[in-house]
Amino acid sequence: MTQNPHPLGQSIIDRAEALARFSDMEGGLTCAFLTPAHRSAQALLAQWMEEAGMQVRIDAIGNVIGRYAADAGADARVLMTGSHFDTVRNGGRYDGRLGILLPIAVVGALNASGIRLPYHLEIVGFAEEEGLRFKTSFLASSVLAGRFDAALLARTDADGVTLAEALAASGLPGHGELAALQAAAVDPATLLGFVEVHIEQGPVLLNKDLPLGVVTQIAGSSRFQVRIEGQASHAGTTPMGMRRDAAAGTAEMILLVESRCSAVPALVGTVGQLLVPDGSSNVIPAACTFSMDIRAGEDDIREAAIADIVAGIQQIAARRGLSAQVDRIKPVFNAPCARWLMDQFSAVLRKRGLAAFELPSGAGHDAMMMQRITDVAMLFVRCGNGGISHNPLETITAEDAQLAAEVFVDFLRHFQPEG
Ligand code: HGY
Ligand code: MN
Ligand code: MN
């Protein structure tokens, strides 16, 4: 039987496949926070971490944390790595998960070779990053970073279940008590840094024919929930000039988001969710709700666009006799990667004769929350299928996964703490 030329890479892909079998939906991958699929994925990650020779714990928000202990004694500091295992609705199987599965495979290989590191390596399977169920992105990394917002405990999901109730029912340590969530924060003084391996989720590496890239900064994002209210009335008898049509007003607002965000290259704006609650085909919509996700590599560019869009929404509403409520969900600001950490990835790439290509991340990542308490760096892995992501078509190759794993081993074994 021929030996697989990319054993680590193939094992990572096989495990991503196995993990994707746990889903909240038929025929695709949705893994929302604390659903049965999410709990099964959490348990399998814990099992794989244990099999790789790690001590595993699950914290108060459901993070799965594996420690590959140092050979330099218990008081050694920690280099942290990891990513999220929750997904968007009908998402891809590598977003987040590659950044957990690859380090686990690497630790398994180190452990099998009896190789220890002069620091503790901790792999975190972050339990919630996407914000699908409670509209709260970076929930799990905010707990680890000591930035959990207690107000989020009252957030409800589509079934009216609060975050507090979901945590209490989960059996997680602390049962969702605020004190337990606050106690789960990591002490920044114990950290050497945080590094995250992630698929690029875009076409840049693919178009440059590069397998890997080093991230320079992670774009900040602001998310909003918007509710527009008008007046229901008969679709057949209400003259067009006498309507207060919430959906027609919303349509104009969505085009405003598109045109304003098209005005600046580094700016993007997306309305990913749009709903006429309790709508009927023969009734003029009384209400319309929609999400907004606005991002830019520069905080001031993003904030200027947000100001224009929010003002524009209110002007459209006033002209159409509508009301507009714009609720901003906690913004996440730009996170720069640390040059001293980036350069250690670049040195490994160059040593292997690879380009040390640097690029910004338009997608948000757990690293941007961890950057609040420690220096961070990210290694991007090429995405196939035109770079598509947040889509079942998301794909990587075993060859690129193998290369990324080998680069990660080199990075870990040559890692030099700052200063
Ligand atoms: O939305 C993002 O950028 C990330 O996938 N949560
Ligand atoms: Mn994502
Ligand atoms: Mn992600």
From TrEMBL:
Organism superkingdom: Bacteria
This enzyme's EC code(s): 3.5.1.87
GO molecular-function term, one example from the UniProt record: N-carbamoyl-L-amino-acid hydrolase activity
Residue span, Peptidase M20 dimerisation domain: 220-317
Cofactor: Mn(2+)
Enzyme's top EC category: hydrolase
Organism: Cupriavidus numazuensis
Stored CDD domains: M20_bAS
Identification of the protein by name: N-carbamoyl-L-amino acid hydrolase
Keywords, comma-separated and alphabetical: Hydrolase, Manganese, Metal-binding
Keyword Magnesium listed: no
Family the UniProt entry places it in: Belongs to the peptidase M20 family.
Gene3D superfamilies in the cross-refs: 3.30.70.360, Zn peptidases (3.40.630.10)
Record note on quaternary structure: Homodimer.
